[in-house]
């Protein structure tokens, strides 16, 4: 289990329903997630009849890829059995990557909680589902709380439910999210992620549905401890999430970029860095003679200059030098010494 309080950002490859109902494709995507450097491969567990009513309409992004007129019909095509999730969990372990899945209904949530995974994901659609929140909190497992479509007050309310049931705030990571596929970058609202973390005193993360991975890098720079991004083997496959996902080579590039951002943030202390120490005196400057200055003559401003290198008297000593008596002869461009 990775600790989300450490310096390394946790990267989750959200496979979700991009397996299109195929266990073979699901296994391939787990392997792609591992090869791309993700820490976890994540799926979605649900019973379509328990998740959506027969009359539940399709969202706009779902209509684009579905010939069925209802959510339940679409979801049925993407549903995997509990036995399959056990097999996928085992496959992830063999591959060497962490495994997560999100329970979307009461029965499925019980199944997922029983798996004792490193994190329990509360999907955006359940942020106002009080009995769901209470049950998850009682499991006393670290939570990733997705906040798509929510207001701050709703997020605050959900965190309040989780903590009132005994869950520590340090075990509740609030995930900024925009529930659209793809989501406009202008609606990523990453500053909301920061403000939620500050106001609620919780770890923060980002579930990214925008195209590309620029916003994920910004989120890491702003303090996201967890990044979640959809992964697909092929963006042109039929299905609701493929178009807003990254293909394996793109996901690898995102992970590499995240790791670069992490190391570039540093420790916050401004000091000379090892790589630049050798350049310090070469690039900085010293007080030098602009003209011949004989011994015994006082240094005048018009006879002094500031030039590289910086091995001599620092220009910060300018006012101490001006007016002093030259202890010896100084020739043009020669560094001034105070004896």
Written overview of the protein:
With 339 residues, the protein is of the alpha/beta class. The protein folds into two domains: 256 residues, Aldolase class I (TIM Barrel), CATH 3.20.20; 48 residues, no CATH class. It has 14 helices and ten strands. It has an eight-stranded parallel β-sheet with strand order 3-2-1-8-7-6-5-4. It has a two-stranded antiparallel sheet with strand order 9-10. Helix 1 packs parallel to helix 5, helix 7 crosses helix 8 and helix 10 packs parallel to helix 11. The longest helix is centred in the last third of the chain and has 18 residues. It starts with 9 loop residues before the first strand and ends in an 18-residue tail after the last helix.
List the helices and strands and how they pair.
Blueprint (H helix, E strand, L loop, with lengths): L9 E7 L6 H13 L4 E6 L2 H4 L8 H4 L7 H8 L3 H14 L2 E6 L2 H9 L5 E3 L7 H9 L4 E4 L5 H13 L7 E6 L12 H11 L3 E5 L5 H8 L4 E5 L17 H18 L8 H4 L2 H4 L2 E4 L14 E4 L10 H4 L18
Parallel strand pairs: 1-2, 1-8, 2-3, 4-5, 5-6, 6-7, 7-8
Antiparallel strand pairs: 9-10
Helix pairs in contact: 1-5, 7-8, 10-11
Overall pLDDT, averaged?
A: 92
SS elements, strand count:
10
Helix-strand topology string:
EHEHHHHEHEHEHEHEHEHHHEEH
Helix share of residues?
25-40%
What is the CA-based Rg, rounded? 29 Å
Determine and state the CATH class of the largest domain: Alpha Beta
CATH superfamily of the largest domain: Aldolase class I
Shape: elongated
Oligomer: single chain
Number of domains: 2
What about the largest sheet? 8 strands, parallel
CATH topology of the largest domain: TIM Barrel
**For the terminal residues, how far apart are their CA atoms?**
63 Å
What count of helical segments does DSSP give? 14
